[in-house]
Each structure stands twice: as C-alpha cells, then as structure tokens.
Amino acid sequence: MQEKPIAVVTGGAGFIGSHMTDRLLKAGYVVRVVDNLSGGRGSNLAHHSRNPDLSLDTQDICKLPANSPLFKNVQLVFHFAGIGDIVPSIEQPTEYMATNVQGTVRVLEATRHGGGRGVQRLVYAASSSCYGLAETPTREDFPIQPQYPYALSKYFGEQAVLHWGKVYGLPVNSMRIFNAYGPRVRTTGAYGAVFGVFFRQKLAGKPYTVVGDGTQSRDFVYVTDVAEAFFLAAVKGHIGEIYNIGANNPQTVLRLVELLGGETVFVPKRPGEPDCTRANIDKITQHLGWRPVVDFPSGVATMLRDIENWRDAPLWDVESIAKATQTWFEFMDPGKSS
Fold it and tell me: Of 205, 258, 280, 323, which sits 20 to 30 A from 170 (CA to CA)?
C-alpha cells in the first residue's frame, strides 16, 4: 500500500491556514500543522479531531530548528504563519521583522533540510500590501512600495522565499493575497479586518464604523478560493512565480454594510491606505487555470450563518478606534508629523 503524501501547513490553525488544511485532507494528504496559536485557534481544526492524518504542533516558527522532524519527508509546505495588522507593526516593527522575515527563513531551512529532494513545492502567503498605493487593476510586475512595516516584512519574506529558490533550488511560489474573507476570519485585540469589526457590531446592535465615506473598495476574495489557488500553485508545473490572488471585482465598504443591514457612523480616512485594491489575475488564470467561484453576496451570506462565532470579538466604536489608530496617524500622515 502506497504511503500518503505529507504536507506541512505553518499557521494551519489560523484563518486561511485552516482552510488550506481542509483542502489538503480532502485531497488525501497527511497534514502536519505548525501553529503557536497566537493568532490561530485549535477550534478551527476541531472538525478534524478524529482524523489520524492531521497533527498539530504548537511551536513558534522563530524557534524552528533546521532539522525539525515535522518537515521530514515532506512533499508540500504552505507557509501562512506570521503576524498581521497594520498598527501593531508600526508600534513593534522588530517583532514583525523577526517573525515574518526570520521566521520565514527558518521555515525555508527546515523545508530544505527535512524534505531534501523530495520537496515538490513550498508556497508562501505573501501580501498585496507590498504594492502600496498602486494603480489598478494591479499586475504582479507593478512597483513595490510598502507603506508600513507589516507590508515591508511580508515583502522581505517573499524575497527570502524566491532567493532560496534561486540559490538552493527549492521549488517555490509566492501568492500575493488581496482581501481574503470567509468563515474563521481572524479576530484579534488589534483594530483590523473589517469583517470582524462589523460582525461584532451587528451582534451588539451598534452602528458600523465606516472609514472615510465608505466608497473605498477592496478586492475581497473568498477563503476557499484562496486555498484552491495555493493548492494549484503546489501541484501544477510552474515554479519560481509570483501570483496575485483576488477576485478582480472590488466591493465598496458601503456594499458590505448594505448586505449586513444596519446603521453607520463614520471615522476618519486613514493615510497610507489605497482607495481601491483590485488584482489583475490574468497570470494565475493562464498558468494555473484558477479563477474565483464564490461571489461576494454568497460569501457574506455564508459568514452570516455563523455570526455567533464573532460574539467574543472586540467591540469597537468611534472613540476606541481613534485611540487604537493614534499611532497610525502619528507616523503615516506626513501633514501631522511635520
């Protein structure tokens, strides 16, 4: 009987990582999840608790040794582990560089030493934030202009991945994710992702705190579509590539409010944020045959069925947001810092 192939998912108890784990188990892989649970949750994998093909190691990638047994005989590695959110990255840039850059290097080394010539692919979760205030729709060859340390750290991580591909012959691909959303989207103590903020406000019967005038748009892409793109990037023939993952169909914040239903209040527009994000996905469609299949209203409706999952998320209002984003305005707004 042929042994099942092995995949490692760093950050596999997190938002996208747990959906990646779902996809791999469905495809017949043995999945080894590495997650220190600082952002991920064991509950995101609870539905696989009886599956012997899944294991969870609560280890920090920053302490991952090159000879880690978790990477022994691995065929596929998906690297999602890292820290997100903009404001904390402005306040703690050293931590972001340590985790998102040096942590990535440790994953690369563990893959190189553990998998050897048996490694078929390492796929890195990069961020579209590296483009900064870019023209739209944004292609992979557009200028890189990170606006804050989080974006810079994810870009440096991508550069390390591509460098290991060139120097050590590690078969790698990098996926620049635009605005992923869907079940299990993370909720942290930091002011961040719009879905976690709005869902908690809806549960509390409070108005949605809309940034600016709400006409800014984001290229929301559903999480199972994201996981499928990563899977195809791992099993198809192209190596050493960078791919955008988006829907190429931006939605305004006011459209999200319309789908959720409820009142709004407005908070100041934040410097360093684009008015629109929109991915040009021609390359990934041509190379991998991928295109998103879940439309925005359907994705939001699916999330609303599980809205109780956001009951313990932070409840934000105008005052708490102003306090949480004070650092953002202090460092990101040239007019105020001069």
Answer: 280
